[in-house]
Amino acid sequence: MSAKGPLIDVIAGARPNFMKIAPILRAIRARQAAGSRLRVRLVHTGQHYDERMSGDFFKQLGIPDPDVNLEVGSGTQAEQTAAIVVRYEHLLLGSRSDLCLVVGDVTSTMACAIAAQKLRVPVAHVEGGIRSGDWGMPEEINRLVTDAITNWFFTTSEVANDNLRKAGVSEERIFFVGNTMIDTLLANQAQFRAPAFWAEAGLQEGQYFVMTLHRPANVDDTQGFAQLLRAVGEAVRGAPVVFPVHPRTAKTLAALPDKPACLLLLDPQPYLEFNYLVRHARCVITDSGGVTEETTVMGVPCVTLRDTTERPETVTIGTNELIGTDPAALKPALDRLFDGQWKKGSIPEMWDGRTGERIAEVLERLLCR
Ligand code: UD1
Questions:
Q1: Which of 128, 142, 261, 308 could form a Cys-Cys staple with 132, CB 3.0–4.6 A?
Q2: Which residues are catalytic, by number?
């Protein structure tokens, strides 16, 4: 360990990572200002590189420019994994850190954990221990591999703690700290703002839907995707559906000859605008995991087009419901919503906006003893 104090590599690669690292960086900065010896090297892998998928989030969330950008860019998951492992190993060989802190479940999370642990740089995983049980999701493979080689786990729920215990992880390696994504939501909610198109599109609070779709199972097959969009059009009773289109989804969408008139197609939205849209929506239709956590905290009804979730508390405690991937399930679900039958939900334990601080405190204890 350097005389200057322990160096933590904070890894971020794809959009859902950025809201998870922001509160951790902020909490470490606060400790540094109070004399902590912890040091941070912010490493962006470059998995997401568009302004709309990356740069906008750094600006809005006050994340400093990365110290290192591995610039891996597009590719198959194997290509991206390979490039990140090689480039991050190269970085560590030239300048070793004392901890590799990864968040979430994206390709960058797994790839950096592999490179670090093989060089015996310890790994900490924020959002460790969650499981969907579905090996068809790339994120589930990323979670399993990452957690198999993680030293310290920062967890969002008791379910995650139990998953880790069942996998043989000892109690002193598990830190139940809550949800950093919710820290970001709570810290920024006063700044949420209507997007420029709000008035022009005639949107009114509680009178429109927000939809996000990007999972391969929903969006990669043109026929299936067309059927899903038709089902959305039939189920929303003429309400507008605000649909920020992920780059992956845009490719399939471009091949469709016609789309339901209710869809308001948009580029990916910045954080503050997106969550304004969600907060005021009648309901959100999604296949994202993170969005189900945000809707739970904001108390907005959420319909998830998946068979499984790694975030069961959004269903058992929150406002989320899994309806599977059959488009025919949408109409009965939204009929219940329109009939006022949707559950109210409450907020899971420790999703209180202080998770970043708890993580920084544990890091200090682990690394500065
Ligand atoms: C990734 C994550 C997923 C996360 C999602 C959020 C993995 C395995 N998946 O999926 O967990 O929910 O991000 O966005 O890590 N592209 C751009 N611009 C960009 C980034 C990507 O055009 O800034 C294109 C890529 O070239 C590719 C497609 O979008 O064609 C998909 O991107 P990729 O990073 O491979 O995975 P996602 O589907 O975004």
A1: 308
A2: 214
